[in-house]
Design brief:
single chain, alpha/beta, TIM Barrel, eight-stranded parallel barrel, about 35% helix, lyase, histidine biosynthesis, lyase activity
Length: about 260
């Protein structure tokens, strides 16, 4: 059985890591490269950077940040935000990213997934899905969770896999920053819809929430931000709890 992964998420805006609730009310929490280095040393299995304002501001993501991270961090890291073309993917991978996440642009131009996967391999391509509950199911939200695409999130996850995505980063807009736990029904529904790994995101407020999503769903990884940024809980604390509850999780120091 493949070990579950614990992944700190760094939402970046104007060169700083920020955190909010339901994608709004952002506050600054630190320098992205410094935080990535700290989390790497503390035992993170991977790190994800999301330049959350790049798409809305119509610009590319922060390449200098990616280069500095690649020089100082020795766990895999994914970068997303403002990725619109295969050339953007090329530049991010050249800058040192291990994987590239795409969201709004992939919804608008699904061939971006296929072309990127063909050129670099599915293992490099992460499709980020921001999903919000509606009466008829979960819809894909774009532009930092602000626009309802009207697309069914489960169908989009299936299509993303068919086009060549190697992983799904699934964020519940309803649970984001609320700290009451992951959206378990949404998470399992997407896991059931695809064969590729799914990362659960949105709602983690305590270590037991990560243990819960691992025990209650077949998700491959869990992403958290607030509990690590605010120093209320450590990666070691999360992993220790998961191990105590029987979750197959990678021990700190084994990479």
């Amino acid at each position: 059985m493949i070990a579950k992964r614990v992944i700190p998420c760094l939402d970046v805006k104007d060169g700083k890591v920020v955190k909010g609730t339901n994608f709004v009310g952002l506050r600054t929490v630190g320098d992205p490269v410094a935080l990535a280095m700290a989390y790497s040393q503390e035992g993170a299995d991977e790190i994800i950077f999301l330049d959350i304002s790049a798409t809305n501001e119509g610009r590319r993501t922060l390449f200098d940040m990616v280069k500095q991270t690649a020089e100082n961090v020795f766990v895999p890291f994914t970068v997303g935000g403002g990725v619109k073309t295969v050339e953007d993917v090329t530049d991010l991978l050249k800058a040192g990213a291990d994987k590239v996440a795409m969201n709004s642009a992939a919804v608008q131009n699904p061939s971006l997934i296929k072309e990127s996967a063909y050129r670099f391999g599915s293992q490099c391509i992460v499709v980020a899905i921001d999903a919000k509950r509606f009466d008829d199911g979960w819809h894909v939200m774009t532009h930092g969770g602000k626009k309802d695409s009207g697309i069914d999130a489960l169908e989009w996850a299936k299509q993303a896999e068919e086009l060549g995505a190697g992983e799904i980063l699934l964020t519940s807009v309803d649970h984001d920053g609320v700290k009451t736990g992951f959206d378990l029904p949404l998470t399992q529904a997407v896991v059931d819809a695809v064969r590729i790994p799914v990362i659960a995101s949105g709602g983690c407020g305590a270590p037991h929430h990560i243990a819960e999503v691992f025990k209650s769903t077949d998700v491959s990884a869990a992403l958290a931000a607030s509990i690590f940024h605010d120093h209320t809980h450590s990666i070691k604390e999360v992993k220790d709890l998961c191990q105590k509850q029987g979750v197959n999780i990678r021990a700190i120091g084994l990479f």
